Amino acid sequence: MYANPPKKMLIMNILDILKRYTDENHRLSQKEIADILEKEYNMKVDRKAIKRNLMNLIDFGYELEYSESVRNNKNGEEEVMYSDWYFNRDFTDAELRLLIDGLLFSKHIPYSQCKMLIEKLEGLSNVYFQSKVKHIRNMPESMLENKQIFLTIEILDEAISKNRQVSFKYNKYDIDKKMRVKTDKGEDRIYIVNPYQMAATNGRYYLICNLDGKENVSNYRLDRISDIEMLETKAADWKKIKGMERDFDLPRHMAENIYMFGSESARVRFRAKRYIVNDILDWFGKDVTFYDPSEDEVTVSVTVCQEAMFYWSMQYGEHIEVLEPASLRDRVGTAAKSIAEKYEK
Fold it and tell me: What count of other Cβ atoms lies within 10 Å of the Cβ of residue 335?
């Protein structure tokens, strides 16, 4: 048989009840709190003690909401009554759901760690929210994993804030679904980079950086990085990196690098069907220019990474025609002919 909990735990148990069982739509009276205390915590407490501890919680800075009413007591005197208590949370259920959905749709967080984070987020709400999200736990356990991802983020965050270089190994998968370190002349290749920013796009987490000794911006997937170390050497000034001479604008960089290939950006013009305007804006953002519209088509001008634009053009080839630069137009045309020849056989 369990011993009765000490009275000094009363205030913490009341707070726990409010966190677990209340929100704006689910409120408790002092009597209902007393009933839960007796049933779940083996504590029999009178209403005055509960009220005193509730007021102490408010004095300590906890955001508790309640209703007030006035009634006459046995002596005919007016008495203020407090009821409908609930804990005012930092996150609404809708906000927590968005955060959980973000984890569910991410492709860079290992299954076990994703599940753990979702459970922590659920813990920020109450039993009513937890019961609603059980049916959406739809994470594939067969997902490819790199369990160093959180260590990688932690070290990169520190290196960026201290303006230091980092070294790491970069990995790739083979047909056996196992991750292997990229090699150079039979030895594990060590990458030394100047890290500038981390960003998420297309369900993946990327490091935006400059490979030491190179001129251009590079992007590396964080879930492919392993054995990362922060170095003592200072990172190169990002304004000296080709393509980053202006103030670093992350939204602009992400819009120009839709697949995070890291090659040079250029102004691209293409003719597109008007029914894919939504897709164009989804991919490139609002820094696109539409002109020369007809009933069915429109010309689009956008600054974008040319390598990424090539693959995007292949994806949307049925609905667009690349106009310039000429080198990109020729490359898309050659690839389209090669594909057509395969299907003509």
Answer: 15
